Amino acid sequence: xxxxxxxxxxxxxxxxxxxxxxxxxxxxxxxxxxxxxxxxxxxxxxxxxxxxxxxxxxxxxxxxxxxxxxxxxxxxxxxxxxxxxxxxxxxxxxxxxxxxxxxxxxxxxxxxxxxxxxxxxxxxxxxxxxxxxxxxxxxxxxxxxxxxxxxxxxxxx
Length: 157
Hints:
Layout: E1 2-6, E2 11-18, E3 21-29, H1 30-47, E4 54-59, H2 69-89, E5 94-97, H3 98-106, H4 113-124, H5 142-155
Parallel strand pairs: 1-4, 4-5
Antiparallel strand pairs: 1-2, 2-3
């Protein structure tokens, strides 16, 4: 399984991707994300016997533009999540840039969120409805970006 995180300045999206399916997804306040990371590792240690489960985090890269405090806060949280994973579980998280995701899923660095979302739906299935859930049912908001990170990590172990 893969845990992927799309960090934000106050809350972050996450996806747990199993063999061919989204197992869990959501958006949590950053302080609660550490508990979700811990839960993921404990579940993996108990159920899969995997020594080093894969965790991938979207990493911000400088694009030559002026940025505000929100970007610096997001970078701060990216580092906190990375350190938490590295220190407590002796494994390094994979850091994935948005540009790498765009190239992998859409073949263009100019791809927009809508293009990425459509590529993910093409691969994992439409969300569907409550009565007939699809492959991406329940994925919302920042969890779409986390699913893109997870998909990249799955294809680039």
